[in-house]
Amino acid sequence: MEDIWIEKYRPKTLDEVAGQNEIIERLKSCVKTKNVPHLIFAGPAGTGKTSSALALSRELFGDTWRQNFNELNASDERGINIIRGKIKEFARTAPIGKNQFKIIFLDEADSLTNDAQAALRRTIEKYTHICRFILSVNYSSKIIEPIQSRCNVFRFGPIKPDDIQKYIRKIATKENLEITPDGLETLIFVARGDLRKAINVLQVAASLRKKITAELLYETSSTAKPEDVKSLISYALSGDFMAARNQLYDLLLKYGLSGEDIIKQIHQTIFDLAISDESKVRLIEKTGETEFRLIEGSNEHIQLESLLAQFALEGGKLKHL
Predict the structure, then answer these.
(1) Does 146 share its domain with 173?
(2) Less CB within 10 Å around the terminal CB: N or C of the chain?
(3) Are residues 140 and 278 in the same domain?
(4) Is residue 137 a part of any domain in this protein?
């Protein structure tokens, strides 16, 4: 399987971008009037920020879009030199063809240092007459206020399940894949609004078999089954700590999950438990504390066992109610 599907099936036009209808309509208006302001695309990963920027440039510039579009990743070079070097050099040159401006797309711009952002502000201001900037960020609040005030902010939300399903079915048809109903449901669960992740997981599974099932997707995506995580929590709440501990290590070995992966799935499963909201609040609090310790570098096995012990103690309180 030579093609990388995320590139192979990347939208070529704005109409092909999935799940961001309101934003796409606004961008199409920009194309129609040939009037594009500086933009900030803010939102989670895999929601169409880069695809929208590329599609916008294709429709604006036509055959000369490659010469008038420059994509840079700010996480590669976070300092002021990237602004004074690559960005400034491209921004100061005239656009190709009859276009009035060109576009610089700065991916992961929220990783730029404050000094680099201050330099970028000046560059945006100085070359507005021949250059437009699109900043792609996860959190727009990390962009300094002087840049935010010069840009229109477009907020991308997680892709809805129906839109993911529609896009995945289109790929499956072109690749001659059979996706079972539970497989499609699992793919949506694994993606959690990230269409890029859904496509990548599908490609890995398709490299093994043409029939995509839930079992295959859980194995290839390093994601535990929701029922397995639920039984882990149930063991702990029932006071059977050793059974919960054994289930934990089964999950770690079977799915190759990290401690943070387990924590995320435990957090998601807590809301589905048939316990009081007050107990859910306490479990979420303890889960958050454990997640913080893991990020700070604590031993994941000790911290996860400690979390299960806390759940067992909470389960003991529930029995006495």
Answers:
(1) no
(2) C
(3) no
(4) yes
Q: Mean pLDDT across the stretch 258-279?
A: 87
Residues 150 and 11 in one domain: yes
**Which pLDDT belongs to residue 1?**
44
Q: Given this model, what pLDDT does residue 73 score? A: 80
CATH of the domain at 181: 1.10.8.60
Asked if 40 and 136 sit in the same domain, the reply is yes
In a domain, 161, yes or no: no
Nearest CA-CA partner of 212 in 183, 175, 191 = 183
Instruction: Mark whether 143 and 274 lie in a shared domain.
Output: no
Look at the alpha carbons of 182, 185, 190, 195 in this order and tell me if their dihedral is positive or negative. Answer: positive
List 134's β-bridge partners, or say none.
39, 105
Residue 321 reports pLDDT greater than 50: no
Q: Which residues contact 175 (CB under 8 A, 6 or more apart)?
A: 206
- Alpha carbon distances (Å) from 16 to 42, 202, 205, 220: 19, 19, 24, 28
Phi and psi torsions of 149, nearest 5°: -70, -20
Residue span of the structural domain in which 291 resides: 226-319
Residue 221 φ then ψ, to 5°: -105, 5
* Mean pLDDT score, 203-231: 87
Burial of 116 (0-12, 13-18, 19+ CB in 10 A): buried
pLDDT grade, residue 119 (50/70/90)? confident
pLDDT value for 251: 84
CA–CA gap between residue 84 and residue 91 (Å, rounded): 10
**In the predicted model, what is the mean pLDDT of the chain?**
87
Q: For the whole model, what pTM was predicted?
A: 0.81
- Strand-pairing partners, residue 179, are 212
154-170 confidence digits (pLDDT tens) = 999 999 999 999 999 99
In a domain, 11, yes or no: yes
The answer to whether the beta carbons of residues 222 and 256 sit under 8 Å apart is yes
- Count of structural domains within the chain: 3
